[in-house]
Design brief:
With 308 residues, this protein is of the alpha/beta class. The protein folds into two domains: 199 residues, Rossmann fold (3-Layer(aba) Sandwich); 54 residues, Histone, subunit A, CATH 1.10.20. The chain is built from 13 helices and six strands. A six-stranded parallel sheet has the order 3-2-4-1-5-6, covered by helices on one side. Helix 5 packs across helix 8.
Length: 308
């Protein structure tokens, strides 16, 4: 049975119909499976079904789900789901530990040669691109440069980027802009130069089964609104409250959608309804960016419509 793909015990959520999974490409047992798509589209449900029916280990490719402080608010697989199939790279990073696509790529590398074929699932497109297109070996950013970047307005960082780098990144995504600025400040070379010197990929796309959830806008927006309500019912507010004394808005872990909004409510700055509305809007905006990015960058992936 497909279900439970959105976090802790979301049994009543409206999951993609079974027919949506009848249009999959051939899933050979000797090939890794890659499943990408926007938030709330049903990726985890498909990964769990493949792992149970055809074998494999489910590997996280979502930047927010690596942190140990969040399960409900980031829709990590529940303990019940984790008991049904092996899972890797979920909730294994401390909330204040540095983590990047480079860290993820190093951790996923041994899983590509492990005893079980990986089923890599998530919504962080940069992880999939690093895996299938290669990733530049950029030196780590010195703490003093990162501290400067944390204090800079987005517009100031964008103004200092070279045109090629600026054209390649999501200029509305602060994390991507800041990363590009930090690389340029730390190495004296634009991020685009590092990317152009990228080594061969660990997993070329032709050696995998790449599946992209092409979720229609209206269908996805309805699921996003209902999912956040379920997160609240399942304890998202308590989860955020448990981090209140350690919350730092500058940390990537604390920028997970829903966390700043619920923290503002806990501090008495906004009502819970306002927090819910803001988090839902933020999720919709994020999903829109994901859909646009995936359609532009993943043209060779096999697409499925989860609403059919």
């Amino acid at each position: 049975m497909i279900g439970q793909g959105f976090g802790q015990d979301f049994h009543s959520f409206g999951y993609p119909p079974m027919a949506a999974f009848d249009h999959l490409p051939e899933i050979r047992p000797d090939r890794p499976v890659l499943i990408a798509g926007p938030t709330a589209s049903g990726k985890s449900a498909l990964a769990l079904r493949i792992a149970r029916d055809r074998g494999g280990v489910i590997v996280n490719a979502d930047a927010s789900q690596v942190y140990d402080c969040w399960r409900v608010v980031t829709a990590r697989p529940s303990p019940q789901e984790e008991a049904q199939a092996p899972h890797q790279l979920y909730g294994h990073v401390a909330f204040d530990a540095p983590y990047s696509a480079g860290h993820w790529l190093r951790e996923v590398t041994p899983l590509l040669e492990g005893p079980e074929r990986p089923i890599i699932v998530g919504g962080t497109g940069l992880y999939f691109m690093a895996l299938t297109e290669g990733m530049a070996d950029i030196p780590p950013t010195p703490p003093e440069i990162r501290a400067r970047a944390d204090e800079m307005p987005l517009e100031d960082m964008l103004a200092q980027l070279d045109a090629r780098t600026a054209a390649r990144i999501d200029r509305r995504n602060r994390a991507r802009v800041q990363r590009a600025w930090e690389v340029q400040a730390a190495t004296g070379r634009p991020l685009a130069d590092w990317q152009d010197a990228t080594p061969p990929p660990l997993l070329p796309l032709e050696r995998a089964v790449p599946i992209l959830f092409d979720a229609p806008k209206d269908w996805l927006l309805d699921r996003i609104a209902r999912r956040f309500d379920l997160m609240l019912e399942q304890g998202a507010l308590d989860e955020v409250a448990a981090m209140r004394d350690r919350y730092d808005p500058a940390l990537p872990s604390c920028k997970a959608i829903g966390v700043p909004e619920l923290m503002a409510h806990l501090r008495g700055e906004i009502t819970l309804d306002e927090a819910r509305a803001r988090a839902t809007i933020a999720t919709r905006q994020f999903a829109k960016r994901q859909r646009t990015w995936f359609r532009a960058r993943m043209k060779d992936w096999h697409r499925i419509r989860p609403d059919q």
